Predict the structure.
Amino acid sequence: MKKLLTVIILVMLFCNTSFALSTYIEKSIYDGCYPDVKSRLGKKNAKAYCGCFVKLSSQKWTDEEFDALTNESEEYQQQSMKFAVDFCNTKIK
């Protein structure tokens, strides 16, 4: 029973991160997001918005999927990311 519990915990840990973006891609997204949002909404809101956007993106895409998305048209990218934009807009004040 103990062995089974250990296996289940390990599977859950690795499954969670296997579908996430790498920290390098997360940092690239944040670094691309922050300056533009900061100029429009200020530091505090930019930090909250961009952090939220990175978190949701990492939960949805792998590095390969995100890379493929960035090779699509701008319209397709906006449509694909709309869920995160809409949600994160509710997190800023």
Q: What stands out?
A: Helices lie at 2-18, 23-41, 43-60, 63-70, 74-89. The chain has a mean pLDDT of 86. The CA atoms of residues 79 and 86 lie 11 Å apart.
